[in-house]
Records
---
Amino acid sequence: MDIEYVSLRLGETRKTRTVLPLELELLGQQWRLVAHDIEVRNKQVGSEQKTFVLARILNAQLHQPLLGKRLKSAGGVRLEPKQLQVERTERDYQVTLNRRLTRDQIEAVVREFALTPKGDVYVIRMAERNLVEFKRDHCARPVLPDDNNELKDYVLPLFENIRPYAAH
């Protein structure tokens, strides 16, 4: 498929991407397309899967020139697109809770995010491809005008940091 997609990177405008869709997933309240980018000229499937927020896809159409054609993997091996599966690799990440949370709030956040205490740290397990969205949604302070900040009484962000967990 050819999609016109706009990401949230600074200054980003829509770009046309040719993708091989694999699956739709719901993350929080956001529908996302899991797909491989396709290098059209070489008929090659990108080595890593990417996610595209459906609401940011401004247009989508079949990519006619590649319809029914065999594609190659990043290593040059011919592949059958129907055999591709969604990468579901999960990883443990160590999170640092916001120091301003009360004990009761910590207990609630631990339950909400299914955090596992390991020694003196908390660990969350999630798909590697969800890390960027997690950081954006839960580790970044919301930007609002100071004179109209209805979130000023909330402990935000919930997490000060997230990094791959390394057992000690």
---
Amino acid sequence: MDWEQDLAAAVTEGEEIRAEELARAALEEGAAPREVLEKGAVAGIYQTGRLWEEGDYFLPDVILSIEAFNKVMEMVEPLLAGEVASTKGKVVLGSVEGDAHDLGKNIVAAMLRSSLYEVIDLGIDVGAERFVEAARDLHPDVIGLGAYMTTTMRNMEGVITALREAGLRDCVKLIIGGAPVTADYAERIGADGYGADAVGAVALVDRLLGVS
């Protein structure tokens, strides 16, 4: 196997140390940083997404894979700083007010980054006004809201209302996701889309922005 296949496999299999070693070796041999990212780490995390979608991978497998991916990103990102930006768009993510869960959001963030989106993660327990500030100050293409309990998903509608009252709702696409959330609920509260899982979320963002 060449380094591309080896690195992709290390990321998919969650071998954090091996992924770091392979990425470093590839860079030392003259591989371009973006090539290491796209042909190695991104290819690996996409394979993880497929295995997750097909039911062959479970949360522990995905978490290990994301950690390996992030380790490569930590190494490569500073080397990309001088390159012309080629991101597909800017996405703001956050778990809504009252919700301290973030595993699903973190998986979505990793998958979006691997798909060359700029991601700003606001974290957990994010109030409506914070999302409004992000829309106003950061000018994202998409805002993604996560809720992982039925008691917090109602706060998603509050974010949409706050964006509308601030005159910003039409300036950004808004998507939602999380265990209790459904496509019907997304339509009912006026969201632009619903992602059933991380792979679906990336596909949804691609579709909303007309990119691939």
